[in-house]
Amino acid sequence: MKLKRLVAVVGCTLAANSFAMNIQPDPENPGGYIIPRADIEAAEKAKTADPMYAVWAKALETLPNNKVEAILPGLASNPSNVIRAEKVFPETEWKFLTDMAAPEYTYTRFLRAIGKFPAFCGDYTDGRDADAICKKSIITAFAHFAQETGGHIAVDNHWDNPKGLEEWQQALVHVREMGWSEGQPGYTTGCGGNDWQNRKWPCADGQGYFGRGAKQLSYHFNYGAFSEAMYDGDATVLLNNPGLVADSWLNLASAIWFFLTPQAPKPAMLHVIDRTWTPSQREKDAGIGFGFGTTINVINGGIECGEQNKDKGQPVNRIRYWEGLQSHYQIPVEPDEVNTCWQQTPYGSLNLNGATDVLYTNWEADYKYHSDRPGGVSFECKLVGYQTAYSALVKGDYEKCVTDVYDAQISWPDVRVVDDVPPGPGPGPGPNPDPDPEPGEFPAWEATKVYTGGDKVSYKGGNYEAKWWTQGNEPTQGGPWKQISGTTPPVEPPVNPEPPVEPPVNPEPPVEPPVEPPVNPEPPAGVTEWVAGQTKVSNGDMVTNGGKCFVAKNNPGVWESPTASNWFWNEVPCK
C-alpha cells in the first residue's frame, strides 16, 4: 500500500468528486436541509478511496481500556503485539534504559501503552519482518524520549551521574514539564474563545495543560484529541483531569499515539520506519526520505530541521542518542536512510500546492459552487492539508463536517442527515407523485419579489420552481429557476451561471492555525524586546521577538532566541 500508486487513484477520486445528492428542505427546520445518510457515506467513500486511508485508520484502532488494564508482563493472555514487544525488548532492557527515569514510568505501563494500539509492534502479511520493525520502533521512540524528557547529564559528571550512564540511557527523567505541578492552572492560551477548538475541546476551570508524559503533551486541543482516542470519542475525560497523562499508563500511551498519527502532510512515524509510506516527489525534492532524520522533521521540523539548524543542540542531541542506541542494539540501517534532517525542508515550510501525490487527513467545507444544488452550495466536504474540526481518520467525522457540528465553517447551511428522505412534492417518481400542475396554478411571478428554494410561480404559460434565492431573474431564462410544467419548453441554464446574491458563499475558508494558538502582531508596551546574546530571562518572563510574544519556561538565559514554542519558550498571545 505505497503512496507511489497515488496519481491514478487521486485522478479517479477527483473525477468522481461531484455526486448525485437528494437534498431537500428540512420540514423540521425552516431554511435548513436534509440529506440521506447513504449519499453522505457514498461521497466519503469516494473521497477516501486511496488504500492509505484504510492503513491510517487501521493504525489508529485501539483496544478497550478494560483489556489494556489487564496487561501484565509475562501473561500468555497479553495481546500478540505486546507479546512481540516483550520478546524483542524484555524488562531487563527497559531497566537498562530507564535507570534514571521517574517512578511514574514502568514496564507494565509501557506494555499497556503498546497494547492500546495493536498496530504498534503489530503483524505484517507481506513478508516484512515484524520483530525487526517492532524493535526499531521502540529504539526510535527511546531516542526521542531521551531528548524530550531525558536527563542530558554528561557521562563523566560523576556528581549528578554516579553510575556513568550514557545520555541515551537517561530517557523519561521528567513526567511533568519543568516548573509545573498539578493544581497549577496554566497553558490556557486559547481557552475560552468562541471558536471551534473550544466548542470541540472546552477547557476545564482551574486545570493546567502544560507538558506531561513521555512526549510532553501540551495545550487543551492536544489533550482533547488524545482523550478522544483513549476514551471512545470523549474529549472531556482528560480535559477535566489532565493529570492522568502523568500518573497513569497514558504517560507512555500519549507518545505511542503520536507515533502512529499522521499529521498531513507529515506521515506517521511508524510508516516512515516500516516503509508503508513512500515520499512524494515534492518531499523528495525537499530532501525528505527514509531514516531517523525524517522522524525529527515529523516531531519538530520547524525548530530542528533545515541547514540553519545543522549545529543546533536539539537535533544534534537526538541524532547522538539515536546513533548510540542504534549501535548498542545493532539496529540495521538501510543505505537510503539518513539520520539527520538539516538537509530537509521543514514540513511547515514545504509548499504542496498543486501536488497530486500527497494525501490529506482533515475535512473542511467544500465551497465550490454547484448550480444544481440549493443556494449553489455543494453540501460536501473536501480534504485539506491543515488542522480542522473534522478528521478523515475518525469514523463519523465526514458526516459531522457536512452538518458542521462544531460550527467551524463560514456561511454553511443547517444540514441534517437522515436515514430516509421522503419523496418531495411535485412531478417525478415516488409512491404518490403529484400530477403536473396546470399553467397558472401558482401565483404569478413578480420581478420585485424575493423567492427562495422551493417557491413556485407561473409565468408566460409555464410553471417554475426556484432552485435557490432569487430576485428579478425571469423564470424563462433558467438560472435559479427550473420549469416544472406548462407549454413553454424548459430553458437550459447558462454554461457559467452567476452564483446567487444571497446568502454569500466564500470560495475558500480561512485557514486556521493548525497547532499553535494565534498571536497578535503588535507586542504590548513595556514588554522586553529580545536581543540575542544580551537579554537574560527567568521562568515566567515575557519577551517579544519578531512581533510575537513568548514566555520563558526553562531559564533560557541569553542564548536561545524565541521563534516558536519549544523546550525553552511558549509562544503566547500579546495582551
Automatic annotation (TrEMBL):
GO molecular function terms noted in the UniProt entry: carbohydrate binding; chitinase activity
Alphabetized PANTHER family for the sequence: CHITINASE 12, CHITINASE-RELATED
Domain of life: Bacteria
Signal peptide region: 1-20
Composition skew (Pro residues), residue ranges: 422-434, 490-524
Region (Disordered): 416-444, 469-527
UniProtKB keywords: Disulfide bond, Hydrolase, Plant defense, Signal
Listed name of the protein: Carbohydrate-binding protein
One GO biological process term: carbohydrate metabolic process
Organism for this UniProt entry: Photobacterium aquae
A GO cellular component entry from the record: extracellular region
Chitin-binding type-3 domain ranges (all copies): 442-484, 527-572
